[in-house]
Amino acid sequence: MLLPQHATKPGVLRVKSLENIGWTVPSPLPAMSSTRPSSRTGRKLRFAEVGPRMTCTCTNQHPYLLNEPSSHFHPHQIRRMIQSFLWARSTRTLDAISSERADSTNGATEYQPTRAAKADDEPGEGTPEYIRRRYFPNVPANDPGLAWMEASSLGTTDPSVPRFDLQGVPIPIPTSLSASLPSHLGLHHHAEGSHAGYTIDDIFLLARSTVPAQRASMLGILAKVAHRLGRQVQHTDSPDEVVVFPGQEGQLRNRILAAGLAAIDQIGSLGARAVEVVWQCTVEWDGMTSELESVELSVAPDTVSSLQLDYLLPQSTDVLSHDALPPESLARLLAVLHWLAQQSNQSSDMTISTPRLVRMILDIFLLTPIPPKEESVLPNPLALQMLITLASASRSNASALLDPADALLRFVTPLPPSSPYPPALATTLLTNTLRFYSTLASYGLYSQIVTTAPQIFTDLASYISSIPSIHEGENASDSASTRLRIAWASLIEAWTVCAMDPMQRVHRTR
């Protein structure tokens, strides 16, 4: 006897002829194009027809004949039932069917406990074992390739380590509470571990991220931390004091500065944050000495050496030439360059010798369009102050700055009342220009301008004589008019010495 083949559709069973029974179907069903032809050409495939009183279930669980044949069945119907039974036995043995019958009778007492036990064995959703069973069912549980799903060892970081929020403020909350803060506060987004906030090591690590937005966020935190550290050094009673790092301010200052310098060549928000970090660690940190002139400050030799001027100065030139940062960031970069020039004569000499750097400072911060356009920035008096600092360092530096001296006459004429700039800005630009000319004259340089353009300085003398000494609401020693008068008197003094004893100025080198 031959076993039947697979059924083509429910209720119609595809079988081979049973020669020992002797029953055949008069006309075989035509073969469909999708049916695989038999490998035995000597036999024909025949199909049994389902009678109205016979039902066969062919489910995956219980292929079993529901209606057993009785004595009044036609012989043909009996043959059909036998054929159906043989097909069912070909897919599952009689022993398996008997076993399933026994299981079905005891299902009420055995199946439910087994299912409950299986539920107890299921791992929690989101656990490493749950992920392994769901997505890597064929991988052993202890496979090294799945170690990345295990809890990070960084989660056991000492909870007493100081942590900061996104504003660079130490988180003043108990350690037990920091482990339960919700993640939507943003304090778990980048940091490792189960506690909220960022340790200083987390911030330094993420400040080297290859994702610009993430790196910029961390540099922003470092800038705020540097601001608080600087205030702590300058004012011991500062409310911004970072008390978690006593005695480590200098070390942290250099580390934060290095993180900012590493991104100083970037553009967009990342470059702007890098400039802010460097500015906080230099200019803002030493803000109390920023007004001192004609002296080498040398207040932070370790910080200056960590700046690597042979790298910073060329990179600053590229940043200025690309003009890819907002005006506020460019102004802070100018302040950093001025701070460097104040530290030592060597720093000033390196600034002068850096190709295109002084020219870029002049073009961006001083030689702006006249009259000013809506989208253009106004001249920055700090650029003139930087020229004074550079020229004060040495005669060679002053000689290198003779070329832009003529261009600065734009701030001498027209005078402040008719200047295209606001009166306060026009007065400050005029004052710093006169101070720059006085610095050049101290070396015997550029004093010939008084004879080349006498009318300009005659009008200037008349204007200074006519302005009141003190404006309403101004301090006598700090008024703009007082500073202008002092600058004009110093220039007249320098020109007078050049005219009476020119050799005294020529021999001055420092």
UniProtKB/TrEMBL annotation:
Residues 99-130 are annotated as: Disordered. It comes from the Eukaryota. InterPro entries: RPAP1/Rba50, RPAP1_C. One of its GO terms (biological process) is transcription by RNA polymerase II. Residues 163-229 form the RPAP1 C-terminal domain. This is RPAP1-like protein. The lineage of its organism: Eukaryota, Fungi, Dikarya, Basidiomycota, Agaricomycotina.
